[in-house]
Amino acid sequence: MDFFRRKILPLLRGRYLLVSGGRDALSTDLIWVSLILIVLSWILTFCRAFIASYVLYALSLAAIFFSAFRMLSRNIGKRESENRWYLFHKNRLIRFFSEARERFRNRKVYRYVACPQCRKRLRLPRGKGALTVTCPECGKKFDAKT
Fold first, then answer.
1. CA angle 34, 18, 5 (to 5 degrees)
2. What sign has the CA pseudo-torsion 4, 10, 12, 13?
3. Dihedral sign, CA of 9, 14, 19, 21?
4. d(Cα 64, Cα 77) in Å, to the nearest integer?
5. What letter does residue 7 receive in the DSSP assignment?
6. CB of 45 within 8 A of CB of 53?
7. How far is CA 133 from CA 62, 107, 126, in A?
8. What pLDDT, in 10s, does the model give residues 101-128?
9. Cα distances (Å, whole numbers) of residue 106 to 8, 46, 99, 103, 124
10. Residue 144: closest CA among 114, 117, 103, 119
11. DSSP state of 30
């Protein structure tokens, strides 16, 4: 432990690894993706798809190296902004799929229509016939069939 404190710790001072713990969402997800790619490359090797397995293995190594680069970087502000960008887009994707799942679950009770002006998605009850709908976002009135 004394060797670590005297030799290694001064090299890591001021790096993203010590400031954030190096475990932000982007680095963690990159490592998981690289592990999945390594397993897929092994499976393709057993299936005799050598070129595809080498490509997946190279991609997994690139993900590991990029994650290590991020952890050892001294540009902490840049790494934090990358992580914020990643989390914003990851949450948008998760929200899109959770809303799609909710629309699928409610497909027999509600009909979803988009406002022709602002494209906001509106939920209308099924079986009410033709309705005149007012968009709560932009105030446009339009006809919709339920």
1. 110
2. positive
3. negative
4. 21
5. I
6. yes
7. 52, 19, 14
8. 999 999 999 999 999 989 899 999 998 8
9. 57, 44, 11, 5, 11
10. 114
11. H
Q: What is the pLDDT of residues 1-29, one digit of tens each?
A: 677 677 776 777 777 776 666 678 898 89
Contact in structure between 141 and 134 (CB atoms under 8 Å): yes
Whether pTM > 0.70 for this model: the answer is yes
In which residue are the tokens 């339009």 written?
142
Q: In the structure, how many helices (H) and strands (E) does the chain have?
A: 6, 4
Helix axis angle for 25-46 and 76-105, nearest 10°, is 70
Rounded Cα gap, residues 53 and 55, in angstroms: 5
- 53-60: long-range contacts at Cβ-Cβ below 8 A with a sequence spacing of 24 or more? 59/34, 60/33, 60/34, 60/35
Pairing of strands 130-134, 121-125: unpaired
